[in-house]
Amino acid sequence: MKISVVLCTYNGEKYIEKQLKSICSQIISVDELIISDDFSQDNTLLIAEQFLCQQSISYRIVKNSNRGVCNNFLNALKLTKGDIIFFSDQDDIWMSNKTEVIMSYFQKDDHVSLVCTNAVLIDNDKNVLGDLYSSIGFNQTQDQDDIFHRVLKKPFVTGATMAIRRELYEKALPFSKHMLHDQWLSYIAACDNGIYISSEKLIYYRQHGENLVGVDKGICERFVKLKRRISCGKVDNYGERLLFGYLDLKQYLIAHNADRNYQTLVDDFIEFWKIRTEFKTMSLFDVRQVIKKSKKDYCKYSTTMNPAYEYLKYFLLKFMK
């Protein structure tokens, strides 16, 4: 099976060479590397070209103009020719056995269409911060048969740790415009119970700025982050994106005659997020009734299980606009 890697870049001159070195140093070699750049204003592409021209790997560099991270990856995906497609961020570092381990999972089970793994979290200076699964509160030991519900409630598949079969990419078309590519692919793979979850840590996943992960934030830190997101309009957009994304998923399931139980489950998520997106127009009494009535729903349909956090979100949405 041929291996393709899609790597999206944007002003990544500080780390890009380290990542390229790790990709080109795999025990099982990569056959093809597609770099899709989103209009970088630094030396990212110059560094990449100077490094790759000295390697034996087949590569292609494509320049885009501010497509955004999701469209950037989709553009790169269209250009791949490999049987197995790996996804890569510009600032991470792969362990030398990443392709070897992940390819073994695909070779052992033809039904597996997506493999995701754990990762070592590092800061800008490569100091270890922990691991990905622990930081997002992901419990790998839960029932694999419930994978569709698990991935709906808490998207745990991280693109930087993911590889897919080409057939999954083709099956997932057209992608939802309201979800990230890795989230959409994980939903489609989960429909056929085709996700393999590995506990192995196969990349150093760099944490900085907006890509910080973690669930155990203090209330003050969460308040500051929430306030900043609301002031930028990101909270409203997040809820609406989820809602429209689930609507896209429902249409996909119907079109592909998916399991009726999955369709019903997605309907439940749609109803839940419809209510969540209406918070800013509700009275305090209505919000209180909704939260009181749906405490169990928070555990079923949302990663936010703290009603106090929902009240905080309501007040900020109500009075910061």
UniProtKB/TrEMBL annotation:
What is the protein name stated in its UniProt record?
Glycosyltransferase
Keyword field contains Transferase: yes
**Organism superkingdom:** Bacteria
Organism of origin: Copranaerobaculum intestinale
- GO molecular function terms attached to this record: hexosyltransferase activity
Classification via Pfam families: Glycos_transf_2
Location of the Glycosyltransferase 2-like domain: 4-171
Entry coiled-coil feature ranges:
none
Swiss-Prot/TrEMBL keywords: Transferase
Q: Does the keyword Amino-acid biosynthesis apply?
A: no
